[in-house]
Amino acid sequence: MSFSGNVKEELAKNISPARHCRIAELAAFIIMCGSVVSRRSDDISLRIHTENFLVARKVFTLIEKTFNIKTDISVRRNIKKQTVSYAVIVRQHEDALRILQAVKMFDGHRGNTEKLHAVNPLIIQQTCCRRAFLRGAFQASGSMSDPNKSYHFEIVCASEPTAEQIRDLICGFSMDAKIVPRKKSFIVYLKEGSQIVDILNIMEAHVSLMALENVRILKEMRNSVNRKVNCETANINKTVSAAVKQVEDITYLRDRIGFENMPEGLVEAAMARLENPDATLKELGESLTPPVGKSGINHRLRKLSELADKVRREQGGIL
C-alpha cells in the first residue's frame, strides 16, 4: 500500500468519541463526495460516493454510531477501467433529513440534485471539530506523495468555495496552504515536510507522522553527509590544484633563474614542496628546520608564485 493509503487506513480507524466531532467529519464527507437527491420536498435521500472502500466503511460507521441509522451500500464494478465504486445511501426521508439538519446543510429549498460546497461555521467552531473536518476531507479527496521521493500533500475540491474554506482551516493551524486550479478542480496543497508533519498531527495520524519523521531524519542525515563530502572534495580539489600550480612555478624558477639566485627562505620552501608535492601547508611547515607555521609557509609559496609570474612577464613567457 502507498504511504497515502497507509495514512487513510490509519485515519479510517479513528472514530471520535465526541458526537460533535463525528458530525464535523461526516460533514466533510458529505461536502467532498456527497449529494442530496430530492424528488419532492418530503422525499429526499442522501448519497455519498467514493472509490475507496475505507471511506465507505467510515461513512457507514459514522452514520450508524452518531444517528443509529442503517444505510445501504451500493457497489459498482467498471470492468473496462478495472475500478470499483461505492455509494453509501440513506434512502429514508426522515433519516436523510436528520443527518442534513445535524450537519446544518438543509434549508428545505433544494433542487433535484444538489452538490454541497461549504460547511456551516457552527459545525467547526471548536478546534477538535476543525481537526475532524480536515480528517474527513483528506480521506474523501486527499492524497500524499511518498516522502522518500518528495513532500506533497493535497486535497482535491470540486469547487473554489470548498477549496478556500479548507485552505483557511489549514492556515488557521499556522500553516501556509495554497490553492491551484487543475482541470475542473481546485487543489489545496502543502509542499514543506515540516508542514505535512503538522497536518498529520492535526488529523491525528500519529503512526504515519512518526514514519514520515523517520524518513525526514534519514534524508537530512544523507543530505548532511553529502554536503560534508562535497565540501571536503572541493577543499581537496582546491588544495591539489594549488599544489600543482606551486610545483609548476617552482620548476619554472629552477629552470630559468636557478635556486642560487633566490633568497634562502624561498629556496627552502621550494625544495620542501618539490620533495612533498602532496603535503598540506601544515605538513610542509613542520618539515622545515626550524618548523614554520601554516601562514609562514603559505607566505613563502605565494612569494614564489609572484616571482615566477614576474620572471614570465620579463622573459615573455605565458602566465
Describe what is shown at a glance:
It contains 11 helices and 9 strands. The protein is α+β, with helices and mostly antiparallel strands and 319 residues long.
Describe the structure.
The two termini are 64 Å apart. The longest helix has 51 residues, at 206-256. The protein has helices at 3-12, 19-33, 53-67, 93-102, 127-141, 160-171, 193-202, 206-256, 264-275, 281-287, 294-314, and strands at 34-40, 43-50, 72-78, 83-90, 113-115, 142-144, 153-157, 178-182, 185-190. The protein is an alpha+beta fold. The strands form 2 sheets. It has a 5-stranded antiparallel β-sheet. Strands 6-7-9-8 form a 4-stranded antiparallel β-sheet. It is rod-shaped. It has 11 helices and 9 strands. Mean pLDDT is 88; it is low at 109-115. The chain has 2 domains: 3-204, Endonuclease I-creI (Roll), CATH 3.10.28.10; 224-314, no CATH class.
The secondary-structure element order is HHEEHEEHEHEEHEEHHHHH
Write down the CATH topology of the largest domain: Endonuclease I-creI
CATH superfamily of the largest domain: Homing endonucleases
CATH class of the largest domain: Alpha Beta
Kindly give the count of domains. Answer: 2
Main sheet: strand order: 3-4-2-1-5
Tell me the number of helical segments per DSSP (H or I, 4 or more residues long): 11
Share of residues in strands: 15-25%
Using DSSP, what is the number of strands?
Answer: 9
Specify Rg, calculated over alpha carbons.
Answer: 35 Å
Task: Extract low-pLDDT stretches.
Answer: 109-115
Helix content: 55-70%
